[in-house]
Specification:
Helices cover 39% and strands 21% of the residues. The chain is of the alpha/beta class. The protein has a single domain (2-254), classed as Carbamate kinase. Helix 2 (22-35) crosses helix 4 and helix 2 runs parallel beside helix 10. The longest helix is centred in the N-terminal third of the chain and has 26 residues, at 66-91. The protein is globular. It starts with a strand and ends with a strand. Bound molecules: Isopentenyl phosphate. The site of Isopentenyl phosphate (IP8) has 17 residues, from helix 3, helix 4, strand 7 and helix 7.
């Protein structure tokens, strides 16, 4: 099985509230469908989650009642994004089944504490493709908190030990500096803890689930649970498909 995360940066415009990229999402759905491989899909929230979640400080937990309406709005928005993604997947023949974390997960103080993995297994067994996503989820300590797609990826990798884990983003992989700001930024082919420690702490889009560094930390944790952990550019046609098929592509390989 291959575990794929469609990052929020590749399926939405992260800077513009609720802006979906139907062309990229449709093409990526087609690439996944063409491989015919068993996959589990996680997607990020992009501008359907982070902008409003930050405005309502949902990543800090619930300290006043007015945040609850914000949480409700974010939950509706990320479900709409998920519907767009699942519609594209099923239109291309992928038997997607949406599994919203708020209905099958629980958090404890900001950490994913329970995920109903039997539900994922049952749908996989049936021959369907579970699709889950970054969401607002009940938290035993904070009331509610943000469950990121990366936390879900880590839990799924731990349980299913996928052959490959692929993070699809809008750049070629992990760079020595922010490639959108620094023309001298170089793609790092192999990323490990030492590389992570040496990366300059500059940010592009700091979002409610942490920086690129937090994400890389999750990836390094996952690398030991799979044969290959890749970060690649989903805006380049064919790259995801080639990676799923096992071809060598431009990407960063994350190792533990
Ligand atoms: O985009 C964030 O998930 P991510 C979820 O995978 C929300 O970090 C609701 C902002």
């Amino acid at each position: 099985m291959i575990l794929v995360k469609l990052g929020g940066s590749v399926i939405t415009d992260k800077g513009r509230y609720r802006t979906f990229d139907p062309d990229t999402a449709g093409r990526l759905a087609e690439e996944i469908a063409r491989t015919g491989q068993d996959v589990v899909i996680v997607h990020g929230a992009g501008s359907f989650g982070h902008i409003l979640a930050k405005e309502h400080r949902l990543h800090l937990g619930i300290s006043d009642g007015s945040q609850l309406l914000g949480a409700s709005l974010v939950m509706s928005d990320v479900r709409e994004l998920d519907l767009e993604v699942c519609r594209r997947l099923s239109a291309k023949g992928v038997r997607a089944v949406p599994l919203p974390p708020a209905s099958c997960a629980a958090m404890r103080d900001g950490t994913l504490h329970h995920l109903d993995l039997d539900l994922f297994k049952a749908y996989l067994h049936l021959g369907m493709v579970p699709v889950t996503f970054g969401d607002v989820v009940r938290d035993e300590v904070r009331g509610l908190s943000i469950c990121s797609g990366d936390q879900l990826m880590a839990a799924l990798a731990k349980e299913f030990r996928p052959n490959k884990v692929i993070f699809v983003t809008d750049v070629d992989g992990v760079f020595t500096a922010d490639p959108t700001q620094d023309p001298k930024a170089r793609l790092i082919e192999t990323v490990d803890q030492k590389v992570l420690d040496s990366l300059p702490r500059t940010e592009r889009n700091v979002d409610v689930t942490g920086s690129i560094f937090a994400k890389i930390r999750y990836m390094i944790g996952m690398a030991s649970l799979t044969n290959e952990c890749l970060v690649l550019n989903g805006k380049v046609p064919g790259r995801l498909e080639a990676a799923i098929r096992g071809e060598r592509v431009i990407a960063s390989r994350v190792v533990s």
